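Complex record, two chains
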Amino acid sequence: MTNLTEDLRAEVALGGTPGGTAGHERGLAERRSPRARKERTVNVVIYAVLVVLVAALLVPFLWMLSSSLKENNQVFTVPIQWIPEEFLWSNYSDIWTRIPMMGYLQNSLYLSVIITFLQVLTGSLAAYGFSKIRFPGRDVLFLGYIATIAVPWQAYMVPQYIMMQQLGLTNSFNALILLQAFGAFGVFLMRQYYMTIPDELCEAARIDGLSEYGIWARVILPLSKPALASLGLLTFVNTWNDYMGPFIYLTSNRLWTVQLGLRSFVGQFDAEFAMIMTGSVISVVPILIIFLIGQRYFIQGIATSGMKG
Amino acid sequence: MTTDTIQAAPPRNRVQGNRKQGNRKQARRNTLIGWTFILPNFLGFLAFTLIPVLAAFALAFMEWTSFSAPKWVGLANFERMLGSDSFWVALRNTLLYALGHVPLTLALALILAMLLNRKLKGIGYFRVAIFFPYITSLVAVAVVWNMLFSPDSGPINQFLQFVGVANPPGWTSSSDWAMPAVILTSVWRDMGYYMILYLAGLQAIPTELYEAAEVDGASAWQRFWNVTLPSLRPTTFFVVVMLTVSSFKVFDLIVVMTNGGPGRSTTVLSQLIYQEGIGEGKFGYSSAISLVLFLIVLTVTVLQFKLQQRRER
């Protein structure tokens, strides 16, 4: 889960780099046209290489999509049929009655929304306490947070499980919400971002008579939108994709998430290749949409800095 | 006279006294306010992360199963673990996975980053496309790759036969090839993420360095070897640590793709902890394995930090 810090650090590191050199290069290129022509051919070659490469890397997705529109016995034909002879759209309507797909999607959505909301809210509150208010014991406490990030969660999943068993919370959403909504990672990430916001801003707001809660809500939160978006999107996607948590805690079918439902479908009907691929596509589509909308928060700054420079 | 002194000298004193008192009051107020900010998260963190972490350490030295009360047994769990065949198999498999996953992902991430680190129209789309597998749900990834690896007429073996491999491997249905299949899948999934880290590293290299090297007549290869690689050292260090740690923690991909099989050919440490602890309710014994996993991860991180420091000196 440490991905995000790096993306943000990258954004900070990249903040100063774009611009400048590009215009300079363009000016040079115009003056020396043979060089510009050579550059253009190089670019065409690079584009060709990139298109082939990316297509090759995305083959699993293409295959998934094409298989999801086939009959079961057409999935493993020799040679491979990249485009189905006949598009079997009915796979996409039949799956809802074959397995309780709608219920799975609702469960995944419910868990993802609640956990994301709690993580972002409590994470940003705690981060404010850790970065903008001075009080004794603060740094020791924060060290406790950092130390647990270094411990693999597999190392303490058994004590967590015992605890949930004692509380009678196994086989309920509450177990997952309690275990995942208060992660140290969110606090760490938000604190790193808040450290880059100058203390003078808070100081000025204090002199203007704002309370600490007011400063958090009206000064810091609006300023930390990119970090909030990153943390929110990442938590959402992680919860949506999580397999081990629901696998350990959710035993009854009506509580299953998309990931569990899909896995059990594969186990039960392992010859229904096409329908399995249909389910896979449906489980990926929400992530694809969220990713396309918020990708700049996922790959903060990196995707844009090269293009806009 | 008294009025005089009160008027003349003491105001300063009073102000100072007030400030000292005010400071103390302010400090107490700050502590209170600070805690109200931290508390909502801290309560959850304390109960569901910190206490379980500490408990894991204690449990490793206890005998506790779902059928018996906890009892202090010292190092007995560790003795049993070292004598257990399945522990060594899991440790070996985890190491094998790391040996394949770390160098392959690192190399491909760097190559992709070099390719994509240029100012071209639409380059962002390529980056996004390569990054996407990393956030795709693991179950979908595992299911699709399992089918791609299908031994009889799966696309991968069809391709291998097409390029002249007479007897393509059985991949996930063969105990020799299941691990390579898992490694290939995970490399495909992870390389986009590490590519992003490398891109950030590449863009932080000052262009003057390349210009100077070009003036000196350095070839593209020499520039890569003498400018790019040394400048990327901090990124590489970070990537290696992250990759190694994540390799030792590998869990869900294996559970979904092979579930440790065929036989025990892909069983890893995390899975063993799950099977012993949650599957069979041997809380104490599984915590001993957890502790070993934690120590390995910690050692790897510390070792790599030390190496990095020595190199920098």
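Note: The CA atoms of residues 299 and 305 of chain B lie 10 Å apart.
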